Amino acid sequence: MNKQLLSMAITAGLACTSLPGLAAVDVILHNAKVYTAEPGQPLQQAVAVEGEKIVAVGSNQDVLRLKTNATQVIDLGGKVLMPGMLDSHSHAIKGGLQLELANLAGEQIPLDALEQRLREWRDNGKARRGEFLSVGGLPGTYWDDIAALEQRFNHGEWADQPILFAANDMHTGWANQAMLKRAGIDASTIAALPADARNTIGQHPDGTPNGFLADASYYPATDLLPPLSHEVLMTAGRLAVNYYKALGITGWMDPLANELPGADVKNDSLGLLPVYKDLSERGELTVHVAALLMANAKARPSDLDELDKVRQQFLGVHNLTLPGIKVFADGVAEAPAQTAAMLEPYKNSGLRGELLLDPATFGELVSAADARGWLVHVHAIGNRAVREALNGIAQARRDRNSGIAHSITHLQMVSPQDYPRFKALNVIAAMQLYWAAADESNMTLVKPYVDAMAFMHTYPARSLLKQGATLSGASDWPITTPEPWKAIYQAVTRKGPKGVLNAGEAIDREQMFQAYTLNSAKAMRLDQQVGSLKVGKLADMIVLDRDVLTVPPEALRDTQVEQTWFAGKQIYAGPTGLAAAALIR
Question: Domains, the chain, ranges and CATH?
Answer without folding.
Answer: 3-83+536-584 (2.30.40.10), 92-222 (3.10.310.70), 230-523 (3.20.20.140)
